[in-house]
Amino acid sequence: MMGQTLIKAKDEMEIDKAKNCKSDVENCKNQSKSYNLSTNFAKSVENCSSAKVLEKNKISAYVKALFTVYPSLPNIIKVVDNIVLQRASSIVPVSSVFGGVSSTMKEIEKVIDMSDRKVRLLRVVAVTRDILSGLSEIDYEIVDMKFFKRMKTESIASRLGIDERSVFRRVSKSIERCSVKCAESGFDSRFFCELLDGEAWIKEVFNKSMSELSANKMRGVRGVKKG
């Protein structure tokens, strides 16, 4: 009888151990799920944050590219306009040329393409002016000297009575404020990409601006590490 009681007690202990073990496993699983959810959430937040930073940088680079090319746009538009007028006036009526239908249509298509380009460049001018209209007097002054009058940093520093490092900082801050206002107005990177579609030369300026922005960020990180 005593032996049976001991066996029963032992079995109950084993069952309790098994239950505890199962409970531990479940707790472990729940902790693992919780950890995975936390990790995934953290990664999601990090990716979202990175995407926002990238978008902000792209808008800043587009703004800088537009400011860079803006002084050249009126002359380029005039050249395009002259080309359109010359091509349009040189088109010979189809009836006066034997078998000239194909060549005449090609010439007309070229005129249309150049006319479309003129409209596109005029839109770029309009958007740039819209961005400039939102600048404060102080920001416009630094943008005007840096991008439109193409003054050297040393000359700008002398004119404003500040050091060259402060000039770089003010230019950067002005562009940054512009990019924030652009984002608030719905001028995101996709908008600028579509705006400049077909203008590879402006996109090259944008790519250069992005590279400069990345290099400046890296220099800033190195500076913080050294400090």
What is the H/E string?
HHHHHHHH
What is the SS-derived class?
Answer: mainly alpha
The unreliable regions are 1-11, 221-227
Main beta-sheet strand count, sense and barrel state: none
Overall number of strands: 0
Average pLDDT figure: 80
Number of domains: 1
- Considering DSSP H and I runs of 4 or more, what fraction of the residues is helical? over 70%
Number of helices: 8
Radius of gyration: 33 Å
Distance between the termini: 80 Å
Q: Name the assembly state.
A: single chain
Describe the fold and architecture.
The protein is globular and about 70 Å long. α1 crosses α8. It has helices at residues 2-69, 73-90, 101-133, 137-148, 153-160, 164-184, 189-195, 200-226. The chain has one domain (55-226). It has 227 residues and is mainly α.
Main attributes of the structure:
85% helix, single chain, disordered C terminus, mainly alpha
What does the secondary structure layout of this molecule look like, with pairings?
Blueprint: H1 2-69, H2 73-90, H3 101-133, H4 137-148, H5 153-160, H6 164-184, H7 189-195, H8 200-226
Brief characterization of the structure:
The chain is mainly α.
